Input
Amino acid sequence: MLKFLGKRAVASGISLVGLILLVFFLSRLTGDPTGLYLPLDASEEARAQFRAIHGLDKPLYVQFFHYMGDLVRLDFGESIRRSEPAIDVVLRGFAWTLQLAVITMTLVVALAIPLGSLAAYHVGGVFDRIATFFSLIGASAPDFWIAIVAIVVFSVTLGWVPTSGTGSIWHWILPVTVLFIRPFGLILQVVRGAMITALSSAYVKTARAKGIKNNAIIFVHALRNALLPVITVIGDQAAALLNGAVVVETIFGFPGVGKLMIDSILQRDFTVVMAAIMVTAMAIFLMNIVIDVLYSILDPRIRY
Amino acid sequence: MSHNDPIDTYQPEIPDAPNAVMRTFRMLWNDKLAFVSTLFLILILLCALFGPLLLEDIATKQNLRGRNAPPFDFTKPWQFWLGGDALGRPLLARIIVAAQNTIYVAAGAVFFSLLIGTTLGLIAGYTSRFWSEVIMRLADVIMSFPSLLLAVIVLFMLDSSVFNLVIVLAITRIPVYLRTARAETLEVRERMFVQAAQVMGASTSRIVFRHILPVVFPTLVTIATLDFAFVMLAESSLSFLGIGIQPPEITWGLMVSQGRPYLTTAWWLSFWPGLAIILTTLSLNLLSNWMRTALDPAQRWRLENVRKKNG
Output
């Protein structure tokens, strides 16, 4: 296991370096930030000075080696737009996103797994049809559309919850609900599919023949085996949330890392873009390793 | 060997194998939701193919006296039944015209990611450890590369055309097919018929494309159907954020975004195109569900024996 973890850490490290290389050079292709930050009539000397301050005057490869040298000392550079260390800006945003992701995924897992198992227990039954239909609608709806419809209905018309921002618990209700819908629908579908396969397998018949109680069969025998594909999908969905629910964060004015990333990309605040991508990528790599470990706990046949 | 053995003379009547098309159609008919979804998708496809040809003029004609005209006013011509937009253009006609870009982007992205992802996945699953590692690390990089950044970069370097958006979306979806194809290949390559082919001296490309690919493909097609819906949503999000398709081109996602400023006064501007997205992706999901059952030999009876079960 330790050897496996080491190998995975090395592989993730290689991927991370590849990612840094790609993002560094590709993001520079979007243009020079000088024009964005200085007034239109700024003199050529002022522009040159701006470039010198932010290290944009040297050739790209020199800039890259400078950046990597600083990175080794855990210096992520300074944000052009906010004049504070980029990593501080990013971690502040990431904390919000992390809370949002954890709350949403906890709710999703807590509800989708039991409901999906129930739907699989009577395939074609009334509950199955209702659950399937609604989860499919949930998986099909674009989140920005749900978000703006929800704002019109619950914030503007009914006035129950605030439209945007983060002050009280009430501010969290709409973003969490909107983010909840799609992963919930998807994971419920996957749980249902995996449980149908598991419940028609030989070991479940054996368990029934032995006279084991129904609940034990569903939740111990079948569910444990059905969970493997479910965990993969949970991982993918959680990764998507960690990458920042850009659209939802934008609509609800939520100061998460997704909104930060899109703002920084559009304003060519390269250091913040790099730091944001590295932080989220590391979180996602870490989560993938946790998922692999979970695999081997759930299915002892999987050995690394 | 006696030749008067009754078994030898008895000629059982072997019914013809059911026509594959008819059989598929009957399985589709037995799942009413999937049947309706298919009809709806055909309708959308027709809109995408012929909509701009027939309705381009109607959809772009501005009429400032009909700004934000409310829906369900049946005294007006049919194209205004769903209301008009901020420039008085008929919403229904615009939705039909926008179907083309929406569907083309999604179809193109799914096609290219399926093609490239499957090829790389088969290679990663069947060749040496080294190439497998390289390809998997590449997939990791793509997975963690934010698609938004990719979209902005492509938009700045190239134009924001339909084709460039297809490239962006195709790249971001490659890992899905790659990982599935690889995982399936790793399992299938250990099976007896692959070993038999190896022993008989089949070339690697023959084993991969003639023996492994047909087994892996149904899974990939099911994923592609589901992914079509996902790509449509991704395109809509990009267009909604203003880094996808740019006006005067239209897609459903862009229409939702254009209606956002009028949300409190004219909800229908954003509502109808959003509904078009939901209905299309819902149909794709239902169809993909049906395909998962129909393509799985162990589950297919659920669709075939409907009458027997009732009777």
Observations:
- Chain A touches chain B through 50 residues (CB under 8 Å).
- Residues 239 and 289 of chain A are 12 Å apart (CA to CA).
- The two ends of chain A are 6 Å apart (CA to CA).
- The mean pLDDT of chain A is 81.
